[in-house]
Design goal:
Blueprint: E1 2-7, H1 13-27, E2 33-37, H2 44-56, E3 61-65, H3 70-76, E4 82-86, H4 88-97, H5 104-121, E5 124-130, H6 141-160, E6 163-168, E7 171-176
Parallel strand pairs: 1-5, 1-6, 2-3, 2-4, 4-5
Antiparallel strand pairs: 6-7
Helix pairs in contact: 3-5, 5-6
Length: about 180
């Protein structure tokens, strides 16, 4: 099952995703409950945020810190695992700013590999991302192209997702497939 979870900064989307992943894991215990963390310890604030997130999660979680190679993490997952990818927004910025991929088609192809592999392995893959299209337009071309690319990825993933949820002020709004979770 593919579940896409979006929301603005500090909307509660990660906390919602963690609770949902844990719930899925407990309904049908699997080999692992995996957290793919894309953030890097780039400054003191990020170090603090990473430490805070780790402290909030229970011992059930197997954390895989992977800023770029998401496909490798998904390949390592066992059939039926629950995998939480947090977050697509940071992954995209890592890919772009490290110069790994620049074209939209390459990004979509990479994400398609994850989705295909997740389906083949029967994973519950939860993908968390930020809603950036609700912000005022930027006058910077780089920022505008980043937001455009992220929104293309969002649309592409949601088309293939079983469930799509947007979280605002900690409240989930299901746009697609809520019944798939029952």
């Amino acid at each position: 099952m593919i579940i896409f979870i979006s929301g603005g900064a500090r909307s509660g989307k990660s906390q919602f995703a963690e609770k949902l992943a844990l719930s899925l894991y407990k309904k049908a215990p699997t080999n692992h409950l995996i957290y793919i963390a894309t953030s890097q310890k780039s400054d003191k604030e990020m170090e603090w945020r990473i430490a805070m997130h780790k402290a909030q999660r229970g011992k059930e979680w197997k954390v895989d810190e992977e800023p770029v190679e998401i496909g490798k993490s998904i390949k390592r997952a066992s059939d039926g695992d629950v995998v939480l990818l947090d977050c697509l927004t940071i992954w995209l910025s890592n890919m772009l700013f490290h110069g790994i991929v620049r074209k939209e088609e390459e990004m979509i192809a990479e994400v398609d590999k994850w989705l295909t592999l997740a389906r083949e392995k029967g994973l519950s893959l939860l993908i968390v991302s930020n809603d950036l299209n609700e912000e005022p337009p930027s006058s910077y071309k780089t920022v505008t192209s980043y937001i455009y690319m992220l929104e293309l990825l969002h649309q592409h993933i949601v088309k293939q997702a079983d469930v799509a949820v947007q979280v605002r002020v900690g409240i989930p709004k299901y746009w697609k497939g809520r019944g798939a979770l029952v």
